[in-house]
Input
Amino acid sequence: MDLGIKGRKAIVCAASKGLGKACANSLAHEGVDLTICSRSQESIDAAAKEIRDATGVMVRTVACDISTEEGRQAVLAACPEPDILVNNAGGPPHGDFRDWDRDTWIKALDSNMLSAIFMIKATVDTMIERRFGRIVNITSRSVKAPILPLGLSNGARAGLTGFCAGLGHQIIQHNVTINAVLPGSILTDRVRDTVTATAAKSDRSFEELMAERETGIPAGRFGRAEELGDACAYLCSTQAGYITGQNILLDGGSYGGTL
Amino acid sequence: MGVLTAARSKRAIHDWPGLVSVQGNKIMDMGIAGKKGIVCAASKGLGRGCAEALAAEGVELVICARTKEVLEATAEDIRKVSGAKVTAIACDITTEEGRAAVLKACPEPDILVNNAGGPPPGDFREWEREDWIKALDGNMLTAIFLIKATVDSMIGRKFGRIVNITSSSVKLPVPYLGMSNGARAGLTGFVAGLARQTVKHNVTLNGLLPGRFETQRLRDNMKITAEKAGRSYDDMYKESVAAATAGRFGTPEEFGVACAYLCSAHAGYITGQNLLMDGGAFESSV
Output
C-alpha cells in the first residue's frame, strides 16, 4: 500500500540504531526526507549513509543529546517544520526507588517525558497550519503493564502518555495525530548485548539463553525492529488520520489483559 | 467551614437517602481503629472528606495544608465529631521541608493519603520547563517521596494502605489540564509497578480518581466561569448539575468513605487499582 507520505519531512530522534533507526528506515522507504539525531556523530552518519544508499532519500544528521534544550534547538534548526515527528530516547536506568532522589527523577522526566513534549510544542503549530502532522512517541510496554525494576520508566513514560492523550483530542481536527508504539521484547543490539554478557558469565550458550527467552513470549520469538518501524510508518501515513491518542503494543502477545 | 460541613451533611442525608453520613454513623467496621494516618491537603474539600472518614473509623491523624487557620479549624471540627487525635501541621507538602515537618509528626504511618492541589489550566504552548517541573513536583514527586519515606516501616509492620488522590483525568484526559494529565498519569504509572512489589507484605497502593465534586474549588471555578460568560452562578450551577450523568455532583463525605474503604483491613487484596468516582461521567465499558 502506498502510505501517501512521499516528499514529507520527518524528524526521528535517537535513530543511529535499534528502534529509532528502524523507524527512520521504514519512513525512508516511503520516500520521506529525514533529519535524524543521536549522541555520536560517527554512528548517526553511518546510519544515514546506510539509509541513503538503500532508499535515495535526503538524510540530514545532527549529533546531539535530544534530552537537552541545546540538542533540541540543533535538530529544529536542521528541520524547523517537520510533517512527521518520531520521539524516541534511551530509557532511564533500572533499580530500587529507595535509591532515587529528586535529581534522578528529574533526569528521567527530562529525557522520557519533557523532551518529547518540547519537541511537540516546537512543531505542532506548523503541522496544524499545513493541515498534516503525524507524531509518534516510542514509549514502552511498561505504559500498559509496569515493569517492576523500571519505576523511572513506568512513571516518566506514563506521564508522557497522559499528556498526549489530552493534546491528541485538541489537534485531530487539523489532521494532526499523536500516537505511541509500545515495544515489548524486540531483538535490538541492546538485547543481544545483554544476552551475550549473561552467556559469558554462565556456562550456557547464547543460543540456549535466547531460546529460553523466546519460550516466554506468546509469539515464540522476539520482534524485529523492522516490524516496529513499519508500525510507526503506518501511523505516519495519510491513511491513519482518524487514529489518535492510541497506544499500540508490539509485544508478540505478551500483555495478558483484554484491553 | 463548620457551617459548610453542616450544610453538606444535611444535603447528603435529606436529598439522597442512600448516602450515609460518616459523621457518627459507621457503615461497617473498617478494622483500622488505632492505626495512624497522614492525610495531605486536608483542610477542605476531598482531603478533608478523607480525614473525616478515617477519623470516624478511629484512625489517629496528622493532617496538613498551607493555611494554618483553616487547617486548625478543620482539625478541631474533626476532633469534636470523632474524638480522634488529630495533629495539624501547616506546611506546603510539595516542598522537602513540608514533607519533613509532616513526617516528623508521624514518622511511621499505617495509612498515607496523598493529595495536592492541581496545576493550573492553560495552553501547553505557554508552559516552560519550570512550569512542568513545578507540576511534576506537586502532583507526582511529592507523593513518590512520601511513599519512599513511609513504605518500609509499613512493610516492617505488615500493614500499609496508601491512597493517591489523583483525578478522573488519569482515565479520561481534560484538554486544558495538560500538566495535570501528565503529572498524575506519571504518578499512576510509577505506582502501578511499586504496588506489585509491596502487596505481599499487606501494603497496598491505589488511586482514587475524583470527577466533579461539591467542593469550594468547584464553586470558585464555576464563579469565575460564570463571570467570564456574563451569566449568573446559580443558573450555571443548576445547568451543570442537570448535565451531570448522576444528576448531581459528588460529596466529599462519600469520597472519604471510598478512601476509608481502600484503607480498611478488608481491602488488602486490592492494589494498583484506579477507582473512578465520577458519578458515571466517563463512558467506558472497562
